[in-house]
Write a structure and sequence with these properties.
The chain is an alpha+beta fold. Helices cover 48% and strands 28% of the residues. It folds into three domains: 92 residues; 32 residues; 109 residues. The chain has a four-stranded antiparallel beta sheet, with no helix packed on it.
């Protein structure tokens, strides 16, 4: 009986030893199982979050594309409207002589001229000029930066209209500056009425200009003179209006 008890005791020791061995393995297996569950849970959570973020970004991208298409459509519409307005302005706005006349009328009205007076003058305008057959031709030395005031002015209409002018100095073949003006370049001509009112005109010769004084239209033609440095001015007097 003592042998049986000893054998049973030995068996318990062996079973206890095996249990301790299996217990360690079971602990490791349990931790691995828990770790696997946690990893899967973390992956699922991250996957769901990524899917949600991806859907949100895709929605914003689709919205941005729609807004871009809308802006393109608006841009095309605005461009079309601008073209229509530009064509309308081109057809309605005054051009050429009409534009110049409108500008002159506007300037006269803004300077204080009575609108009835402006309307009367426009209504009286006609192609028959009523100009005198005789003309008055005189010459003067067109000034440059190298010349003085000698022979630099002429007068018409009983000294009520004075004409002066300036030009760019001419150069010789060696590029040396000369005292007389260069007729190939633009010149500046100034018409001054008695009282100080000035009317400038510029351009290449010949030039044409009209000045109104004492109920007459004084028509001027300025051309290059035969003598070097001089210009010739011809005046014709016409009834006005």
């Amino acid at each position: 009986m003592a042998d049986n008890q000893e054998a049973a005791h030995e068996t318990d020791k062996v079973q206890s030893f095996h249990w301790r061995q299996h217990k360690g393995k079971l602990g490791i297996a349990l931790w691995l199982a828990i770790a696997s569950v946690l990893a899967y849970w973390a992956y699922s959570l991250a996957s769901d979050r990524y899917s949600g973020l991806n859907r949100e970004l895709q929605s914003k991208l689709d919205q941005a594309r729609m807004e871009y298409k809308h802006l393109l459509a608006q841009s095309a519409e605005y461009k079309n409207r601008a073209n229509i307005l530009e064509q309308k302005y081109a057809s309605d706005a005054p051009h050429g002589a009409t534009r110049q006349i409108m500008a002159l009328v506007k300037e006269r009205l803004e300077s204080g001229v009575n609108p009835d007076r402006v309307a009367f003058l426009v209504a009286m305008a006609k192609n028959e000029s009523g100009c005198e057959q005789t003309t008055d031709t005189r010459r003067f030395l067109l000034q440059t930066s190298l010349t003085t005031g000698a022979n630099s002015a002429i007068s018409f209409a009983n000294n009520t209209v004075t004409v002066t002018g300036r030009g760019s100095p001419s150069r010789d073949t060696n590029d040396n500056v000369q005292a007389w003006f260069d007729p190939a370049k633009k010149v500046e001509i100034l018409f001054t009425l008695i009282g100080g009112e000035e009317y400038p005109v510029d351009g290449k010769l010949p030039l044409h200009h009209s000045v109104i004084s004492d109920n007459f239209e004084h028509r001027f033609t300025i051309r290059l003179g035969d003598a070097r440095g001089f210009v010739v001015v011809t005046e014709q007097r016409c009834a006005f209006p």
